[in-house]
Amino acid sequence: MVTSDCVFCRIVAGEIPATVVHETATTLAFRDIHPQAPVHVLVIPKAHHADVAALAVADPGLAGEVLATAAAVAAAEGVAASGFRLVFNTGADGGQDVFHAHGHVLGGVRIGPMVAR
Ligand code: 5GP
Ligand code: ZN
Predict the structure, then answer these.
(1) Ligand 1: does its nearest atom lie under 6 Å from the Cβ of 96?
(2) Does any ligand 1 atom lie closer than 6 A to the CB of residue 9?
(3) Tens digit of pLDDT at every position of the chain (117 positions)
(4) Atom number in ligand 1 closest to CA 31
(5) Catalytic site includes residue 102
(6) Could you write out the DSSP letters of every residue in 46-69?
(7) What letter does residue 1 receive in the DSSP assignment?
(8) Which atom of ligand 1 sits closest to the CA of residue 98?
């Protein structure tokens, strides 16, 4: 049974496979299907919120748990000391494609300029 049109809700529901690297009661972290760096993990709240701004307004505690999970992922992936980038693309100008709040943990290489020109 399809529970949602949202691809990340369907990953949470186990309807779409994903390579999960970390899970808490409220958050899930899994490898991006099209990695842009040696470490590229998506960190999401299990509950559906359209983007990080909506998440922060609706449930700031959960937003903090997403950040804590991102930090745990960076440590587990071995990039906490070398550094990493945590990106929340938001809306059309932000380049957001999936409208379920998610942070990208990117590392394992020098990520480069913050904004492409
Ligand atoms: P956005 O552009 O919304 O910030 O990032 C969405 C990300 O989700 C993209 O990097 C894309 O590769 C990833 N993605 C989209 N669909 C799937 C999927 O079904 N599984 C996984 N693991 N990643 C996905
Ligand atoms: Zn969703």
Answers:
(1) yes
(2) no
(3) 567 899 999 999 999 999 999 999 999 999 999 999 999 999 999 999 999 999 999 999 999 999 999 999 999 999 999 999 999 999 999 999 999 999 999 999 999 999 987
(4) 22
(5) yes
(6) SS--SSHHHHHHH-HHHHHHHHHH
(7) -
(8) 3
